[in-house]
What we know:
Number of helices: 3
Structural class: mainly beta
Strand order of the largest sheet: 8-9-12-13-10-11
Largest sheet: 6 strands, mixed
Strand content: over 45%
Shape: elongated
Amino acid sequence: MEMWPGISPFMGIAGAGDFRYLCNMKRRLVIVMGLLALSGGTLGAEGFRVRGRVKAAAGTPVPGAVVQLDEQYLWAVTDAEGRFVLDEVQQSTYQLETACLGYVTDFRKILVNKDIEQLEITLQVQSLALREVVVTAELSKENLNTTQQIGRTALDHLQVSGLSNIAALLPGGKTVNPDLTVSAQLSVRGGGNTAGNAAFATAVEVDGVRMGDNAGFGGLSGTDTRSLQVENIESVEVISGVPSAEYGDLGSGMVRVTTRKGRTPVMATFSINPRTYDVSVSKGVEVGHGILNLSGQWTRATQKLTSPYTSYTRRGFTAEYSRTFRKVLRLEAGLTGNIGGMDSRDDPDTYSDQYTRARDNLLTPHARMTWLLNRPWVTNLTLEASMYYHDNRSHEHLYNSYGSSQPAVHAETEGYWLAAALPPTFYADRIADSRELDWAASLKYGWMRHFGPVKSTLKAGLQWKADGNVGRGEYYEDPSLAADGYRPRPYTDYPYMHNLALYAEEKVAWRRLEVSAGLRGERTFVRDAAYDHLQTLSPRLNARLGLLEGLSLRGGWGITRKLPGFYVLYPKQEYRDIQTFGFSHGSGASYVYYTQPYTLTRNPDLRWQSNRNAEIGLDWERRGWKVSLAGFRNITKDPYTLATLYTPFSYTVMQVPDGYVMPADPQVVTDHQTGMVWMRGADEEYYTPMDVLVEDRTFAAGRM
């Protein structure tokens, strides 16, 4: 299996003018950060210290637990004794979150108005035996938008075999029989035939790596999630409300997956249902001063109980390493992958022996470095980089049998052509070699300050993403056996699509009111593309107001935009083949066809598909009872569609002259421009012209 094609991700970037635009965006980000540094430098960095210890219910220390204040404002990782220190904490009331793999996450409010030296935190071991364990999706309390949290216990309760099964845990979701032999996509707020295809507009991320679907040529079907192993998932976050300005290239929603990170004993699971067999094993060990998590999962699913010859196999693996340097620099790096695919073949007792094989190989190396600076002008800096490689090569081995000679037209230019003849019986091997190769990198800036009773949190960032396909494309192993109408289509002929984004978002909290406002600006670069709307702006707004104790009102409005994908950017060149002359000779037959390529029209006014999302919700919680009501209006504008245009054209139809005796093995020539045909029986004979039967007219279809 070729895993590293020698193609640069920078192939296909736009010209000098677009490069200057890119540089200007970077310069603006530097200026913004510089102004923040100058303005923040006068605020001072005085604060308090919070010391504490994290232990299990049995009293033993919990090393490696992550303790953080208010969405990673300040964070620390406990040492071997379970101790942690948070320095320079500004005076305020905070949400303190303590999380460790294998334990129930602890949330509590703390007031910091002096040094805290002995904060004791006790974590409960995660188990289905707990009285208050959550076995369904739970509405997030920290997010202003509608966000559902699904923990590991809920996934264990459902016994998921694929990521798409989590839909049963969401409000309004339904449980379906798991079936890994068919493509499985996730769709957020997209029931029925939603305009713009909600599955294509639903983003899926695993540990910050966006699962690609932009560089595929199969349609607007969305990301197939079967290749993702599920036993290594720690939690899933489903964002169906207005997302943060940090997230782009999406429409109706987003699914964010977090895998296990931390010390764990050896964990093995075995799962069997009538059509699926699953085995997985994982372990988190200390390596040096860091933690290495290793996991593997083997899954085999068959399509029918009565026949094991059509099946899907998943061999998933992950390796995640995390380490904290000098208590302020945290590294998270890993590799997620899968080696597997679909195998469909006939029962050995049949005669034809046809089969279809499709690879589903996945490789996603990624790394994240977070630097806790805690300065007056910056709190955190995060640098991320990732690669997404999806090898989805399909191979069809098909049996063909005809009662008479069959023509096969493969001409790629307009004109009249003599068709090739296919044998009466043969096997043909058709290949569709798709290898999506995406690259991404980002720099994120985080800053939090308090101004009396007002808490201000600012985040900004610069993101770059490149989507491309390095597959060989569509072809036959033996071109002489290619089906009628086939034309080769190398995917490497299509340039990369680059997208550069700059965003900023401010969240302000004052007493019972929280408001978050952000703006995301994007620029798309496509080589030789005559599009006029490559720059976009996406505003986002969310707010929540506490009305009474346990009762709050929230709402949001925002615009999200989905990149078009190669299926829209590069529609397939189609052809119309019309038979203009056919004749029998000896034991065979020959045909002349007029080939008319469909006109591919690039729409310069093409706009990126956008979603205008507005929602309002009411949340109430008291004495263990929780009630959440939400109403939303999601409007898709400029959905991606292909339009068909028709233009008239004419062609010449020929016939054999009256009284002409057809040779047993004729020599035939045709004029590619006029369609005239001449024929003779041997080299020493003169060519005889065929007669014109009619000048016919029809319409050629063009795609846009």
